[in-house]
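Re: How this chain folds, sequence and tokenised backbone to follow
Notation: Tokens come from a learned vocabulary of local backbone shapes, not from coordinates.
Start of record: The labelled sequence and token lines come straight after this line.
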Amino acid sequence: MVDSPGGKEKPKKSEEITLKLSPTGDPRMGRVYANYVQISHNPWEFTVRFCLAPPGGDIKKSMKGNKLEIPIIIDIMVPPALIPGFIKALQTNYGKFEKRSEISIPTEAESTTH
């Protein structure tokens, strides 16, 4: 903080921070594949649960009666303050993906009508 002429402090200008992401080195924390995501929340955090569901043709083989159990790969708990930036990052990256991809992914409305 720097003193101003009136004796009040004024904050320093924010400094630019460079962020470097580095792997943990723990082999359990490597890349994983998930094809099912479940999101829930409580008053303190959001939980993003990544799972591995069987491919479409194998679903009936994996069922026990009318119940399908799929393994949870990882649960990630996120504080609510990170959610708006997380949503924006997903929207930005998905928009870039759509522009470059020839893959057509149906919207929720389209997938429920088929």
Summary: Residues 79 and 107 are 28 Å apart (CA to CA). The first helix runs from residue 59 to 62.
